[in-house]
Structure formats: C-alpha cells, structure tokens
Write a structure and sequence with these properties.
This is Tetratricopeptide repeat protein. The chain crosses the membrane at residues 108-128, 140-158. With 267 residues, the protein is an all-alpha fold. The chain has three domains: 2-100, no CATH class; 108-166; 180-266. It is 76% helix and 0% strand. The protein has helices at 2-21, 28-45, 48-63, 71-82, 90-100, 108-130, 137-166, 180-196, 200-219, 223-237, 246-266.
C-alpha cells in the first residue's frame, strides 16, 4: 500500500507539472494518460470518487479545443467511450477501433483450406480431362461447380469450428510439470508484477494471469477463489486504458463462460 501511495503522489506531481507546461494543448494526450493511470490507482485503493473525478478530468483534457487530433488521442477517447465516458457517436468509433486492432491470427489451415481445395480440385479436373476420363464439357462444368461448392463448405466448417474452439471452455494452463500450488504461486507473482505496471499492455497480461489462476482454482474445486480471480480479470478488462481488440473481447467471453460454470458447480 505504501508503494501504491508513493506512485499516486508521483503521478499527482507529474500531472500538476504537465498542466503548467501544456497550456497550448501540445501535451494533452500525455496528461490524459497520466490522469487515467492515476484514476486506476485510486480505484485500486477503493477511492472511487477520486477515480471518477480524474476520469472526468481526462475527458476534459482530451475535449479541449487546443488538444490536436492524433492516433493516441483517438485511442484514449475510444477507451473512455467504451466505458461510457465518451461523446455521442464515439461508441461506434470504439467498435471500429476494436475491429482494426491487433488480435489473435487464425492458423493458415483455416484461412487457406478453401483455396487449397480449389487448386487441387481444378488440377484433378484438368488432368482427368487430359487423360480422357472426363469426355464432355458438361461433366467438366459439373466438376467445377462441385469443387467450388466443396471448397466453400469446408472453409466455412473449419472457420466455424476454429471460432467455437477459441470462444469456449476455461483457460487451459500448462503448468510445465509443476504442482498446482507452485503454479498458483508463480502466477500470483506474475500478477503482482503486472499490477505494479501502468502500461496498458500489462493490464491485458494481468487479466490473462487472473484467468489462468481462475482455471487452476476451478480445477482444484476452489470455486470461491476461482470466482474472485474472475472478478479480478473482469476488472482489468473493463479498465479504460486496457487495450481494445479481439483478444480483450475473447477474454471477456471466457470470463462469462467460466462464471457460468462456477455457478452451476455451486448449485
């Protein structure tokens, strides 16, 4: 707690200094980022009123007419809009931003299966025609339609199976042969490191660590601790400066699915 209070004091001093130096608006995004980080720290200490005040200050900083437009400004506004702090219409910008942000890349087999079937199928058709197996243009045309339809069907099935596989079930934790208690200890240590950082990327890392802890607790039948870890993950994912994107949405869905599993086990 003393360490957190020191961070709060340091950020407050930096914000006060930036306010004096950014009268022309050129440092507005840096000031707003620090205000959001300070809001997060206050929220962690339980001072929700101060956290809300700093969120409002960050919004005013970005809405200042002297604050120039930039990608960083848009990113911060999108994050705040997603939490209900933005201006009308900003929610749609946030959705677009989420779609454009980096996400988990689909494996090549799922992306190119349809094209592969087309090439192989058409190759077989041309060879069959050359060898005289297909003796009419009608048979060749039917073959083309069959191969085309098959490529679309297989591609759709594989993509659907992939999306279901990544959106279902609890997080699987590879403990590397460690016993569960040691794995939990290491994950909690990593979580403390992530929590001590104010880098938006580390917020997503912290949420993933909480989910991994929830999975280990779930496997060991400790539903209360699993539920607490899921609440922690959801708190990180709902943080205004958490990176938006496919990975965040996937983790949010996993949180809800695991909460449902825990609820059913507690009945």
């Amino acid at each position: 707690m003393a360490n957190k209070q020191q961070k709060i004091q340091d950020l407050e001093n930096q914000i006060e200094s930036d306010r004096i130096l950014s009268g022309d608006g050129t440092n507005c995004t840096r000031l707003a980022t620090k205000q959001l980080r300070l809001a997060r720290l206050y929220r962690q200490t339980g001072d929700m009123a101060k956290a809300s005040e700093l969120m409002a200050d960050a919004k005013k900083t970005l809405d200042d007419p002297l604050c120039p437009n930039s990608r960083e400004k848009i990113r911060l506004q999108n994050a705040m809009a997603y939490m209900g702090m933005g201006t009308p219409g900003a929610q749609q910008q946030s959705i677009n931003s989420m779609m454009m942000n980096r996400g988990q890349r689909m494996p090549a087999i799922y992306r190119f299966a349809g094209i592969l079937i087309l090439f192989v199928g058409y190759g077989i058709l041309y060879i069959s025609e050359f060898l005289g197996i297909l003796t009419s243009t009608t048979e060749f045309g039917i073959g083309i339609f069959v191969v085309f339809g098959l490529s679309i069907a297989v591609s759709t099935i594989l993509r659907g199976r992939y999306m279901r596989s990544i959106n279902s079930g609890p997080v699987m934790v590879n403990t590397g042969g460690m016993d569960p208690a040691t794995a939990v200890e290491k994950l909690e240590s990593k979580l403390r490191e992530d929590q001590s950082s104010i880098d938006p990327k580390r917020i997503l890392d912290a949420a993933q660590t909480e989910l991994a802890l929830a999975s280990l607790y779930y496997q060991s039948k400790d539903m209360d601790k699993a539920a607490q870890a899921l609440d922690g993950a959801q708190k990180f994912l709902n943080d205004p400066i958490c990176e938006q994107g496919f990975e965040r949405e996937r983790l949010l869905r996993t949180v809800e699915q695991m909460k449902g599993m825990i609820s059913r086990n507690q009945q």
